[in-house]
UniProtKB/TrEMBL annotation:
Protein name: Large ribosomal subunit protein uL30
Subunit structure: Part of the 50S ribosomal subunit.
Species of the source: Hymenobacter psychrotolerans DSM 18569
Gene: rpmD
Domain of life of the organism encoding this protein: Bacteria
Stated family: Belongs to the universal ribosomal protein uL30 family.
HAMAP family tied to this protein: Ribosomal_uL30_B (MF_01371_B)
Organism placement in taxonomy: Bacteria, Pseudomonadati, Bacteroidota, Cytophagia, Cytophagales
Length: 59
């Protein structure tokens, strides 16, 4: 599978608890943190749920 680079660009403060947990499950903590992950259907669904907080690029 292809890899994607995800970067947290907006804060999770004042967001629903579900979105906070999704961001943490993706392996992101602070604003500006980034991670390369496999683009599996599970990860794609998590990214789609918090896409307004992330910046996504394909590798």
């Amino acid at each position: 599978m292809a890899q994607i680079q995800i970067k947290l660009v907006k804060s999770v403060i004042d967001r629903p608890e579900r979105q906070k947990r999704t961001v943490k499950a993706l392996g992101l903590g602070k604003i500006g943190s980034s991670k390369a992950v496999e683009n599996t259907p599970q990860v794609a669904g998590m990214v789609n749920a918090v896409k307004h907080l992330l910046e996504v690029t394909e590798l």
